[in-house]
Automatic annotation (TrEMBL):
Family statement: Belongs to the peptidase S28 family.
GO terms for biological process, alphabetical: proteolysis
Membrane-traversing stretches: none
Protein name (database record): Serine carboxypeptidase S28 family protein
MF annotations from Gene Ontology: dipeptidyl-peptidase activity; serine-type exopeptidase activity
Protein source organism: Gossypium raimondii (Peruvian cotton)
InterPro entries: AB_hydrolase_fold, Peptidase_S28, Ser_carbopepase_S28_SKS
Signal peptide: 1-22
Alphabetized UniProt keyword annotations: Glycoprotein, Hydrolase, Protease, Signal
PANTHER family, A to Z: ALPHA_BETA-HYDROLASES SUPERFAMILY PROTEIN, PROTEASE S28 PRO-X CARBOXYPEPTIDASE-RELATED
Amino acid sequence: MAPCLSFFFLFLFAFSAIPANSLPTFFPGAAYQSLIKQAKISKPKLPFKTHYFPQTLDHFTFQPKSSKLFYQKYLINSDYWRKGAPIFVYTGNEGNIEWFAANTGFMLDIAPKFKALLVFIEHRFYGKSMPFGKDSYQSAKTLGYLNSQQALADFAVLITSLKQNLSSEASPVVVFGGSYGGMLAAWFRLKYPHIAIGALASSAPILQFDKLIPWSSFYDAVSQDFKDVSLNCYQVIKGSWAELEAMSTQKQALAELSKTFRTCKSLHSTASARDWLWTAFVYTSMVNYPTKADFMKPLPAYPVQKMCKIIDKIPSGATKLSRAFAAASLYYNYSRSENCFKIEHEVDGHGLHGWDWQTCTEMVMPMTCSKESMFPPSGFDYEEFAEQCQMKYGVSPRPHWITTEFGGERIQKVLKRFGSNIIFSNGMQDPWSRGGVLKNISSSIISLVTEKGAHHVDFRSATKKDPKWLIQLRKQEVEIIQKWLNEYYADL
Ligand SMILES: *[C@@H]1O[C@H](CO)[C@@H](O)[C@H](O)[C@H]1NC(C)=O
Ligand SMILES: *[C@@H]1O[C@H](CO)[C@@H](O)[C@H](O)[C@H]1NC(C)=O
Ligand SMILES: *[C@@H]1O[C@H](CO)[C@@H](O)[C@H](O)[C@H]1NC(C)=O
């Protein structure tokens, strides 16, 4: 039976080398690669200056080696800033910081109104911020310094130093983050309230841990997106896996399959075809944006609808598998520029697999596929997962650490009496929304939920085609941030 792939998207998706029962990442490795490549190719000139900050390797011990420094990259835009005005900081995610800066046009859009300084900080062990250079991913000895608490402390130290250098200690700081970066932004506000006056956490699945939500939530939500468009569409995709599974793995059958899937090279197994389809459906549901976008890949507005249109239009004489393939092709070939599909992806040789380490240590987000989902039913076998992590890195996951360190149990009651000034925004099209905070907690810990929103849609640059609900959502976020700032300046 096909395993339930793990995509942690926080953008977390990664088809990692962990074969079964692994965790979804915000970036499935394959898609991640292509998006990095894409970010490089179609990189618009970003209005930021690049800086490097000498950062401490280990904030939490005083062993001699913990004081080693590494260079942490950050980006700055000071076009609108004047001394004393707010500093808006993006708390970087599991990837190259330019990519997040390019996809968080919202902060650039609102900077003039607030005369804000914009700072995008790269997360340690990603992009150029490698504590041990090329050897950073070598083993647990180096990777051991990659975790969310060190990352939050990096942000705290860097922000403090920056304010000193600008002689603007009184500037209020608001942190912004999407996906894993959104989790970090929310946690940063809770851990470092003396450094950030508030946090906007977009699509931050801080409840995707332990047993806080049903493990089937993520894939049920993906399935719901397709079912909401058309029952037939959902049924065709659901039925396609068995057709794939039934194909023999003999050379000739694989050659047939390679033809159907228009692969560049003949397939070695049916599993890669399955992962390829899987990735297309999961990512498309995450980025089911109301306007044309190019986040993971170029896609039209409401791409789930477009995929289902493709499926529904094909006569029912065609196999379910061929119809699912046609739909998935929208994801891989909306640019119409692919001559063939590279279904068996190259292995990442550039050390972009940091998220994989994070899922094997603290970011354990169990996911299963229920019978109601459009994916083959499967469970989450923790023992097997832990064994794979042992094999790969020689470490054992700590599945309860995140909830111990940051909380999550009874979050409504806990945060009602503790904490303030956090916006959790979620779009229900995004499967990660099910691990988000979907209810208001207090008068200043606010949940903004949009029925048609997708993965941190609010962070995208405004466009003329934005629907009313999206304009309204951003307006409400700006008003809330303005209120925090007013209160801060009034208290000064
Ligand atoms: C602040 O200035 C010091 C001394 O020049 C420098 O080492 C440090 O990197 C600066 N901080 C930031 C955040 O750029
Ligand atoms: C991609 O789209 C173009 C234009 O429709 C088409 O000619 C090409 O065959 C497609 N590629 C694949 C691999 O299906
Ligand atoms: C939370 O409160 C705000 C008003 O402060 C409201 O606009 C929003 O819809 C509420 N969120 C939820 C999930 O009910």
